[in-house]
Specification:
alpha/beta; DHBP synthase; four-stranded parallel beta sheet; eleven-stranded mixed beta sheet; binds magnesium ion; binds adenosine monophosphate; 2 domains
């Protein structure tokens, strides 16, 4: 077991992912405490999903509303089938996209050992098998299903580096495994397969078109500004609130910059005059833009500008996920 340094010195909390450090993370998780690790989407704040106290600690550490259910991470479909009613449609989705950035919402099995708190009391459970080798190594070493929401305070910008985790999770996590920057950079696509029609609840890198192809059936999309926000009970609690937000206000679809603003640019046409500029992708590549989104928002925010002007981002492919996150970051804050 690695000696863990004092809690006020983050350099003692961030570890390179050696076999020893991975075993330490697994030991910490098995003892009911929290460990942060990289996935291909963002860094996760992991805890034993079968342990009600450990799951409660995640909600407390993040300041996350109890009504917002967590995603449970597993090595693959075999383990997911021990938790949920993993029917033929789920098998097809897993066959096509697992391990990877697709979360499946399925009915819990009657004998599901996951804390009901992780599902926010719903009859369903969100499960995902990440492809990141460190996430896989931690899952296998701990031999636990791991609840692992993004390792940031609820509502704030998600972490895509180990240092981002250290910056936001002041004192609540016992170890952070450093896997470098996340390759995808936005959260997984959430796909509900518990109803008659497959429904994308949150856009991500895996598109509804790709899912429809793999399933051989139509896929509907219920996202940010869907009317379920106004009156019907939310299909996916927590989906519609202000989220992913920096301290600064966001001004979307900006083609000019006003005095005092920071600029989140995209492509090679960069309006002048910003106090600070970060370009998501000078070559207008949406995958690169997703990968740099959260780090860029954090850097601009750190400069202290009151407003971040955000260039228009094409709403195709993973651009839909980027715009979803930007819209929610710009949403009125409660
Ligand atoms: P996060 O952990 O912050 O990436 O958020 C996970 C998101 O997955 C939640 O905000 C929900 O929108 C969604 N989710 C998790 N569990 C369920 C579930 N049982 N039913 C519907 N949506 C879910
Ligand atoms: Mg999150």
């Amino acid at each position: 077991m690695i000696h863990l340094g004092p809690r006020d010195r983050w350099e003692h909390i961030i570890f390179q992912p050696t076999p020893e450090a991975i075993q330490s993370a697994a030991d910490i998780l098995r003892s009911g405490r929290m460990a942060a690790f990289p996935t291909e989407t963002v860094y996760g704040l992991g805890a034993d999903a079968t342990n009600d106290d450990a799951v409660a600690a995640i909600f407390r550490a993040k300041g996350r509303p109890q009504t917002n259910p967590l995603i449970v991470h597993v090595p693959g479909a075999v383990e997911a089938a021990k938790l949920t009613r993993f029917d033929a449609r789920a098998e097809r989705a897993a066959q096509a996209f697992w391990p990877g950035a697709l979360t499946l919402v399925l009915e819990r099995r009657a004998d599901c050992p996951i804390a009901t708190r992780a599902s926010a009391g719903l009859s369903t459970l969100a499960v995902r098998a990440p492809i990141h080798p460190i996430a896989q190594a931690v899952l296998r070493a701990s031999e636990l299903p791991l609840a692992a929401p993004s390792a940031n305070l609820s509502g704030q910008v998600s972490p895509t580096t180990a240092q981002h985790v250290a910056d936001s999770m002041d004192g609540s996590v016992d170890i952070i495994l450093d896997g470098g920057p996340c390759t995808i950079g936005v959260e997984s696509t959430v796909l509900a397969l518990n109803g008659p029609v497959a429904s994308v609840l949150r856009p991500g890198s895996i598109t509804p078109e790709a899912i429809a192809d793999a399933l051989g059936e139509p896929v509907e999309t219920l996202t940010t500004n869907h009317p379920i926000a106004a009156n019907a009970p939310a299909r996916s609690p927590g989906l519609l609130d202000s989220h992913y937000a920096p301290r600064a206000k966001l001004r979307l679809n900006a083609t000019t910059v006003s005095k005092g603003e920071g600029l989140l640019a995209f492509g090679d046409t960069v309006p002048p005059g910003a106090v600070i500029t970060r370009n998501l992708s000078a070559r207008a590549d949406l995958g690169e833009a997703a990968g740099s989104l959260y780090a860029a928002l954090r850097e601009i925010d750190r400069s202290g500008v009151p407003v971040i002007a955000v260039a228009p981002i094409p709403n195709t492919g993973i651009g839909v996920a980027i715009n979803d996150r930007l819209n929610r970051a710009a949403a009125p804050r409660g």
